[in-house]
Amino acid sequence: MQEMIDRLRSEALAAIHAADGEPALEAVRVAVLGRKGSLTGLLRGLKDLEGDAKRDAGAALNALKDELTAALDARLLAFSGARPVTAHAYDLTLPGRAPAPLGSRHPLLTVLEGICDIFYGMGFSRDDGPEVELDYYNFTALNFPDDHPARDIQDTFYFNEKVLLRTQTSPVQVRMMEQREPPLACIFPGRVYRNENADASHSSEFFQIEGLVVDRAVSMADLKDTVDTFVRNFFGAEAPTRFRPHYFPFTEPSVEVDMQCVACGGSGCGVCKQTGWLEIMGAGMVHPNVFRAAGYPDDRYTGFAFGMGIDRIAMLKYGISDIRLLYENDLRFLNQFRGVQ
User: Which one is predicted more confidently, 200 or 179?
Assistant: First the structure.
């Protein structure tokens, strides 16, 4: 067998070097490596060998196949005038011809991390919860009555009667209170979903950040001081706030927090609808029923909660007029925020 292999090697290499063009070279390839080629015939003959003879012949034939394939490829490159690629064909240490384009942080991420940094400085920790949520945590444990309009299928994406896409980050409040004992000071940023038609100020998915503080003798004054500290640090020292009475099922008393319009400084303009104020968040003292759902004795602890849309905060900070711009991935829009803090 070895004599046959050696003879085939010498004859095949001689034929490859003698080929005077691509057609002749292809004829050699078919004669040696084709289905009825000489090397293919020897490979098929391995079945007649046994033991070490079969193993040694198989290794030698496979090595010959690789050698002849490389010789055929080299000869074909010579006919085409191409230079074979070697380890020294290119200097990979040379710098690129132009700087590679780099991405930048999305404005929503910049705003989110900026908000979190302020609350970190006030001693808050950061947690999160599932986006696919149980109806119990999204509504029942937050003191929503069974007939509350927010439970309607027109407002909420339901998987079934018990599972839905969360409509707010508030469910994480109850989950955290079930797992931990006071004192608590936590923020919960995340994506939320509502069954709404998209327009300049609404989207079916957006980002919120929720805050929760629970301890003994926590008061509305603590809430106001926390909110004022955030607004001053994020929007600037000259950014007064006001609290207006409101209703939320999971807080009592409840308030909406307004900030003096950043566009007109409170004098009234189209941005603030001539009121001089812009709503930035909802807040209030945690309702006793929420404490009960989480297993807290409502006569021992008090706390406050607040929630705001990160998208809305970003629109106020950067003067963005349409929330849809934040989700369309238009580079002409996003490149405006390259390097913006």
Answer: 179
